[in-house]
Amino acid sequence: MARVATGDADAFRQLVDRHADRVLALARRVLVQQADAEDVTQEVFTRLWTRADTYRPGRARFTTWLYRIVMNASLNSRRGPAPPASLDDEPEPATEAPGPDHAAANRQTRDRVESAVRTLPLSQRAAIALTTGRELSNREAAAIMQVSVKALEALLVRARRSLRTQLGDLR
């Protein structure tokens, strides 16, 4: 980041190459629409380039700082009710040659989960997006959302309770 702050385009390209997929995946999980997520990704890296000097290494990990920018840009980009985060970027578990019935059942389950996530309030959806399938701790996710760890955990409890109620028959 120090090199990016001095205008080093090669350092910036390395950061983009290293983090673009994760930025896009997080934006897509919060916004769902691919086009919106791509717009946010472009905005995030524009901000990273123009505001690189605002990063303070001792205050937060780079990814925590970056994901906070992603969350802010995602929340600011909402135009009307936002659809839920997509779970498509989560890898499917490895199985031994599943048949077509198994694949159809998995697709149906994924669609039901995505539909249930869509009904969650944005703050709960963001909490789920940051903590599910990410290497982020609750503390890091709370910092990104600018809430206390307790508040994040409360959001997660409410989100999971709601999802359990809606998806109870999937157990």
Helices, by number, come to 8
Given helix and strand content, the structural type is mainly alpha
Helix content: 55-70%
CATH architecture of the largest domain: Orthogonal Bundle
User: How many E-type strands?
Assistant: 0
What is the CATH top level name of the largest domain?
Answer: Mainly Alpha
CATH superfamily of the largest domain: RNA polymerase sigma factor, region 2, helix turn helix motif
| Poorly predicted parts | 79-85
Q: Distance N terminus to C terminus?
A: 45 Å
CATH level-3 fold name of the largest domain? Rna Polymerase Sigma Factor, Chain: A
- Helix/strand order: HHHHHHHH
Structural domain tally: 2
Strand content: under 5%
- Broad shape: globular
Tell me the major beta sheet.
none
Overall pLDDT confidence: 81
CA gyration radius, whole angstroms: 17 Å
Keywords: DNA-binding, Sigma factor, Transcription, Transcription regulation
Region (Disordered): 76-110
Domain RNA polymerase sigma factor 70 region 4 type: 111-163
InterPro entries: RNA_pol_sigma-70-like, RNA_pol_sigma-70_dom, RNA_pol_sigma70_r2, RNA_pol_sigma70_r4_t2, RNA_pol_sigma_r2, RNA_pol_sigma_r3/r4-like, WH-like_DNA-bd_sf
